[in-house]
Amino acid sequence: MLPDYGKTFARWRAGAAGQWHDYTRHPFVEGLGAGTLPRTAFLHYLIQDYVFLTHFSRAWSLGVVKSETLEEMKICAGTVNALVNHEMQLHVKTCAAEGIDEDSLFAATEAVENLAYTRYVMDAGLQGDFLDLMAALAPCVMGYGEIGVRLKGSKSSDTPYADWIATYADPEYQAVCTSVGAMIDTAVARRIGDLAHAPRASGLQDRFNMATKLEVGFWQMGLNGQ
Ligand SMILES: Cc1ncc(CO)c(N)n1
């Protein structure tokens, strides 16, 4: 069963159609579940993902700046905390076990796919408003939540990527997805009313679709790095 991350997300997800499928069922993702993903591809991805998360945290911090309510601020600040103090620990721990220390993670050169994605999200928030930023952030947060839940139920028992899967299937990560989804529903209603009839709906859907496409590119970058 698909997790419920709110009605705005459900609408955006349906609107992204085939692209959402390409993202959440990418061969890289299937390789994590089956355990067949080459280790070199995984580590290449993980180092890039560490850098991604530093910029992703900056974008969520911009969410605090663009908030209009204390509730929005709390969710954005809480997501920054979840990213920098929890999710990134997986990267640090897994890379440490492979002899890659945190200083070299922080200093890693960004792949262009990584740069394109994170700066696109940041610019969506700088150029646009809070909703533009949320539409660009949602595929990252919720996509990994959905992938984590699905892989947890279908993974091969001997995949070496069980820790990765557990990080995103974890109730703590799922709670982030649920509370972000609820906050986005309230933020949409407050600013533009019913999304189904809002003139801005197609612009927000475009942001969501572009971020989804950039997620596909991110997985592909991982595979190309093997
Ligand atoms: C590329 C990417 N998207 C989303 C997440 C989830 O936070 C992540 N760690 N990396």
UniProtKB/TrEMBL annotation:
Annotated EC: 3.5.99.2
Xref: CDD domains: TenA_C_ScTHI20-like
Protein name, per record: Aminopyrimidine aminohydrolase
InterPro entries assigned: Haem_Oase-like_multi-hlx (IPR016084), Thiaminase-2/PQQC (IPR004305), Thiaminase_II (IPR027574), Thiamine_Salvage_TenA (IPR050967)
Gene Ontology molecular function terms on file: thiaminase activity
PANTHER family linked to this entry: BIFUNCTIONAL TH2 PROTEIN, SI:CH1073-67J19.1-RELATED
Family in the record: Belongs to the TenA family.
Catalytic activity as recorded in UniProt: thiamine + H2O = 5-(2-hydroxyethyl)-4-methylthiazole + 4-amino-5-hydroxymethyl-2-methylpyrimidine + H(+); 4-amino-5-aminomethyl-2-methylpyrimidine + H2O = 4-amino-5-hydroxymethyl-2-methylpyrimidine + NH4(+)
Keywords of this entry: Hydrolase, Thiamine biosynthesis
Single biological process term from Gene Ontology: thiamine biosynthetic process
Domain Thiaminase-2/PQQC: 19-224
Gene3D superfamilies in alphabetical order: Heme oxygenase-like (1.20.910.10)
Listed pathway(s): Cofactor biosynthesis; thiamine diphosphate biosynthesis
Record gene name: tenA_2
Pfam short name (any one): TENA_THI-4
Keyword Hydrolase applies: yes
Coiled coil spans: none
A GO-annotated cellular component: cytosol
Highest taxon listed in the record's lineage: Bacteria
Role noted for this protein: Catalyzes an amino-pyrimidine hydrolysis reaction at the C5' of the pyrimidine moiety of thiamine compounds, a reaction that is part of a thiamine salvage pathway.
